[in-house]
Design a protein that fits this description.
This protein is mainly β and about 260 residues long. It is built from 1 helix and 12 strands. The strands form 2 sheets. Strands 2, 3, 5, 6, 7, 8, 9, 10, 11 and 12 form a 10-stranded antiparallel beta sheet that branches.
């Protein structure tokens, strides 16, 4: 196991890495259950999938951001659990339209044991309980046009506790919100095929609703006592959603014939 191939947060700010013990490899025990149903409605058809999962972690290595200017790595003394259910559906109509919808609910929690032997349960950061995806594709046969729409929904998630700085460079007494607001990301693309689909010209719009993270992911960038990016309080742990707004793109694609 290489800790830093799995967690790159130690290079995204000025936090000091502290490994508080000799780390043991993580272990996990997993169980899952799947249900699949293929159906027809008239001449159209689709499928429905339901997946349930449960994973129990021991020796889980969870980065601790609770101390300012530090990331503390240690094996949890308790355990961690990831459990949930996912439902997805795809359908193809008789006319050239198809769509896919999926929704996922999960609970990702750490169960720790304090000095008194009592258990405490708290959610892991960046793990939303609710998430969803969707897509729709429509093909115009004669003009050889394809219209594709995709979306991604991310529900509320736990965030690290971080503190902005005041005008003198000292942390404020109140932390930023430790739970994010839900957000969604929508994209649209149109593709035109030429020469028996050997050449394709496409154009698209990403992030149609122009959603961007409402609070800067940077902490400590305004420290008057240090150059930007070199403050001991500089941190990027608060990055959790898109930072780019609406974007337009165009392109050309060539495919070799079989």
């Amino acid at each position: 196991m290489n800790l830093f191939t799995e967690d790159h947060a130690f290079v995204t700010g000025q936090r000091k890495v502290e490994i508080s013990e000799s780390l043991q490899p993580e272990r996990s025990y997993n169980g899952s259950l799947n249900f699949n149903q293929i159906y027809t409605i008239g001449k159209s058809q689709g499928s429905l999938d339901v997946d349930g999962f449960y994973t129990y972690f021991t020796n889980k290595i969870i980065p601790n951001y609770n101390e300012p200017q530090k990331i503390i790595y240690a094996n949890t003394q308790g355990h961690a659990i990831s459990k949930g259910i996912g439902i997805s559906m795809n359908h193809h109509f008789v006319f050239p339209l198809s769509f896919n919808l999926g929704i996922n609910y999960q609970q990702v929690e750490e169960v720790s044991i304090n000095e008194d032997g009592r258990k405490s349960v708290h959610p892991l950061a960046y793990a939303p309980k609710w998430s969803g995806v969707g897509s729709a594709n429509y093909e115009w046969q004669k003009p050889k046009l394809t219209l594709a729409y995709t979306m991604r929904y991310t529900g509320a998630m736990a965030l690290p506790e971080v503190f902005d700085l005041d005008d003198t460079g000292n942390p404020l007494p109140v932390a930023r919100p430790t739970v994010s607001m839900p957000f969604s990301f929508h994209n649209l693309q149109i593709t035109k095929a030429f020469c028996k689909n050997t050449w394709q010209v496409y154009a698209g719009l990403q992030n149609i609703l122009n959603y961007r993270q409402p609070i800067s992911p940077l902490v400590g960038y305004n420290d008057p006592n240090a150059a930007k990016g070199f403050s001991p309080f500089f941190d990027t742990a608060y990055a959790y959603s898109p930072l780019h707004g609406r974007e337009l793109y165009v392109g050309v694609r060539w495919r070799a014939r079989d």
